[in-house]
Structure formats: C-alpha cells, structure tokens
Design a protein that fits this description.
The complex is a heterodimer of chains A (359) and B (154). Chain A has 359 residues and is α/β, with parallel strands linked by helices. Chain A has 13 helices and 19 strands. In chain A, helix 8 packs parallel to helix 9. In chain B, 77% of the residues lie in helices and 0% in strands. In chain B, helix 1 packs antiparallel against helix 6 and helix 3 crosses helix 4. The two termini of chain B are 23 Å apart. At the A-B interface, loops of A face helix 6 of B.
Chain lengths: 359, 154
C-alpha cells in the first residue's frame, strides 16, 4: 500500500473514534501505522495498538511504548461513544451483528465487541455494557496470491480443490481473498478466463459487506452470501447460483465437512481455509480432518512465519511440495519476542510447522 | 381569530407528529433503517408539514455532526421552534423525545416509540379540548370585537 492509501485507510477509521483516541491514533508515526493491524480500546485501560507481530500502548501524543502506564487511559464513556458511533447511533440496526460479536465498518474494517451477554433462550440476543472494542484493520493486498495461483490451476480453464492451512494471523484470509479475485476476474496474462465464483462469507471477513456492499474486490464473477453459516450457504449457492467455484473461510463446524462433500459431488470446486499448523495437524481436526483423508482437496497451501519471514508452501494431495517461497514481512522477530508468550509461541509454532522439512 | 387558528395548527401538528412516530416505528422496528436515514426519508415526505424542517435538521445533525439522536433532536427542536405552534412549556415536554432513540434493540425502541405516542396523544387530546372550548371563545370574541368596531364606525 502507498503512503496515501495508508493515510486514506486510517482516515476511514478516525471518524468512529472519540476525540482523544482519534487524536492519539492520528499522531502515530507512519512507519508504525503501515503495519497497524488492530486498535484495542478497553474501558479503564490504556489504548493499545497491535502491529505486525507486536503490540504497543499508544500515548496521547501518538508515541508507542511497552509500558502500560504511558498509554492513553480510556474512559468508560469513550468506549460507549465509540460503540454508538460504530452503530451510527442506531443500535437496533446492528443488533444481529452485535449478537455475533462484531460490527463491520465502512471500508471493511471489523470491530469486535465485548461486554455483558444477554441470552434469549439458547441464543445470544445482545451484548450490553460494552467494555472493550477491538478494531481490526482490513487491508486488501491485491496480487499477493499471484505466484501461488499458478500452482492451483488445473490446465487453463479450471482450478484444483484447494485448502489453505495456517495458524491464526498468518494471512490466510488475505490470501484467500486475492485468490478469489483472481479466480473470478481471470488472469489474461496466462490465458485463464475466470470462473463464476460464490463466496459464503459467514464472518463477513472476505467481502466485508457494509450495508450489503462488498468493501473488498472479489472479482466481477463473484456472488456473495454474507453472514450465512457455511452448510446452509453452500447448499443455497449450489441450488440457486450454479457457481463453478465455492469459496469459504475457516472450516471447522460439524456441518462443514458434509456440505463440502456435497459441493464436490455436484462437481463444484472448493477453495477454503482452516486453522492448522500443517496437513498432519489438519487431519487430526475434529469434524473436518476427514476431508483430507477423502482426497477431495488436491492442493494445500500452508502458511507460516519464521524470523520475520512469511513462508508459503503449496503441496499436492500426496504431500509432495509444488512450490515454496520465503517473503520478508519487515517484522522484527526480536521485537516480536518481547511481546509475551502467546505471540512468541504462535510465531515459533507456525514457523516450525510451515518450515518442516525446510531446514 | 389568530389565537383560534393557532390552536387548530397545534392540534394538526400533534396529529402529524403521531403519524411521524408511526412511520418511524416502521422504519426502525420493521426495516431496521439507521436513524439518520429514517429521519432523512421522513423529511422528504412533503406531507410532514411543520415538521419537515425539523426532520431535515435532525438528519443533518446526526449525519454531518455525528451527534446522537438525543442531542440532534434537542438542537433541531431549538432551531425549528419558531416555526412550530407550541408554547415553551409544550416544547419542554417534547425536548426529551430523542434521548433513548437508537440506544437499544428493536423491542426496546418499539416500547419507547409507543410511550412517546401516548404522550403526544395526550397532548393532542388536550389541544382538541382547548380548541373546542377556548377556540369557540376566541372566535366569539373576535366576532364581538368586529361587530363593536362596525357599530363605532357607524
């Protein structure tokens, strides 16, 4: 992203923020904002930013620190104000989103919310007394799947059933989004004409629909079913939209495997993602691990991070490696290690998993 | 005569406000439209008479200044006060209308709107009563003063 694009992206978020927080975020140095991934606002606690691989407390002047006391303390009324602004001062218009735990903002950014959960029977009806908000900044990296795409092509008219595996925060949704765009738009440079695609966007992360309009470019041949559970969504798409490819994010629930098999039986290609460190780890996953045994997925894309490098590997169903790439993310791994056990553990584990057999 | 027509205007304005509340209920609880859009839509309806300017200001306050419905309503009511046929006491009764709008789920919004409708209906019935009693009085006084003036001129 260019400096201007980055500034525009941040300007899209600032209007939602209460004055003091907006002022602090606007004053963060560009060298940091370009890798800003999340803004975390908690009542009674200091303002925090999560950057690529590390987190920092943000002071009133926009400077970053590992010391919580130097961060701008957020008042409860500011969290409330932020929440109402995100809902356009119309909570009822977002009550279904709120019950799911997040609100999609203009620009495709997503705000997770925490507070006291209100149940109606078995279902969550609402979240009240909002205590913290986490704004995840959406960045569409067009072209990031350029090389990988060549390895999921079946000839020049079709694609392989593909599964993207990675631990959290390694970029699988970003990669899937770009693959979706390429599949739908086609690649004239290699003679791939593009395929009718259907996205079942259960968590509104791929298309990031804001009032029904996708905020991310998923290509001209893509139909999007927003906020729909995957099993029902896949069924609806098969029946109603006759897609060539169905694209879904984060397989995991009990019905997912069955609906994926149904799509395969209908001759539709599937491109999906799942949380796993590698293929063996995926096979052990409850509910969905059996999909790997079926041999339905013909390509596996495995993502990981090691020493600040992003590792992308493409394997076929036999486990043979087809492609491997190491990309410098610009993340200072030493810095990452300072930020608590969780990040360090995730980074190490994901790195080790994705780099298995590479040493 | 002027006082009598003001009473009639007041009664009509309150009846119209009741209609607006009904439309707002549909926009909020039926369609789930955000408040600023609902107010914008209602302001475009030519039949909203004296309330059109207020609804327009309300939508603008919410949209451009980013204020909540309570604050936006108070500001819009102040701006539009001179165009509405209400005395300060009645405006005071309407002042708090927006406070709870937009801050809860649809069920709660419905309850709030119904409560407001009851309040407006009570104001309307008082205005009707006033029109029936004081209106007649003002009209008779007007006719009496007119007749007196004619007699004096003769």
């Amino acid at each position: 992203m260019t400096v201007i694009e980055e500034q525009e992206m941040l300007q899209g978020i600032v209007p939602y923020l209460p004055a003091r927080i907006a002022n602090a975020v606007s004053r963060i140095d560009f060298s940091h904002t370009r890798c800003l991934e999340e803004i975390r606002v908690k009542a009674g606690l200091p303002l925090m930013g999560v950057f690529s691989g590390y987190d920092r407390f943000i002071s009133e002047e926009g400077s970053l620190s590992t010391t919580a006391q130097l961060g701008l303390p957020v008042a409860g009324c500011e969290v409330e104000e932020l929440f109402y602004r995100m809902c356009e001062h119309s909570v009822y218009a977002y009550q279904e989103d709120i019950a799911r735990g997040f609100i999609t903002l203009r620009g495709g950014h997503r705000a997770g919310i925490c507070g006291s959960v209100v149940y109606q029977g078995e279902a969550i009806k609402a979240i009240k007394d909002i205590s913290s908000v986490c704004i995840r900044i959406s960045r569409q990296l067009k072209g990031c799947a350029g090389d990988v795409f060549l390895h999921i092509l079946r000839g020049l008219q079709d694609i392989y059933n593909t599964l993207i595996l990675s631990p959290p925060r390694c970029g699988k949704t970003t990669l899937l989004r770009d693959l979706c765009r390429m599949i739908s738009e086609g690649r004239p440079d290699i003679g791939f004409p593009g395929l009718r695609s259907a996205v079942v966007d259960e968590r509104s992360e791929l298309a990031a629909c804001y009032k029904g309009i996708p905020q991310n470019d998923l290509g001209p041949r893509t139909d999007i079913l927003d906020a729909c559970r995957k099993p029902e969504g896949i069924e609806m798409m098969l029946r109603g939209m006759s897609p060539s490819v169905i694209i879904v994010d984060e397989l995991g629930s009990p019905g997912d495997a069955q609906s994926i098999r149904r799509a395969w039986n209908a001759g539709v290609r599937i491109v999906a993602t799942a949380h796993a460190y590698d293929l063996e780890d995926f096979k052990r996953r409850l509910n969905i691990g059996s999909l790997a045994e079926d041999g339905g997925f013909e390509r596996y894309i495995i993502l990981g991070l090691r020493h600040g490098e992003r590792i992308i590997r493409v394997m076929d169903q036999n486990g043979d490696q087809r492609y491997c790439n190491h990309e410098d993310t610009g993340i200072n791994y030493g810095l990452c290690g300072l930020n608590g056990n969780r990040d360090e553990a995730v980074l190490k584990a994901s790195g080790e998993a994705a780099c298995a057999g590479q040493a | 005569m002027k006082l009598s027509s003001r009473l009639r205007e007041k009664q009509l304005a309150l009846a119209k406000l009741n209609e607006i509340l009904l439309q707002l209920e549909n926009e909020i609880c039926g369609l789930g439209v955000p408040l600023h859009k609902a107010f914008e839509k209602l302001s475009r309806m030519a039949s909203n008479g004296a309330w059109t300017a207020l609804l327009h200001a309300l939508a603008n306050n919410m949209n451009e200044r980013g204020t909540d419905a309570g604050m936006a309503w108070k500001q819009a009511l102040e701006e539009a006060a001179c165009g509405l046929p209400f005395d300060p006491g009645e405006l005071g009764l309407l002042k708090d209308f927006g406070d709870m709008l937009g801050k809860s789920d649809r069920d709660m919004q419905l309850a709030i709107l119904r409560m407001e409708k009851e309040k407006v209906m009570a104001m309307e019935s008082r205005a009707k009563e006033a029109l029936a009693t004081q209106g007649k009085l003002y009209r008779n006084l007007g006719a009496l003063f007119g007749a007196a003036a004619v007699i004096l001129l003769i």
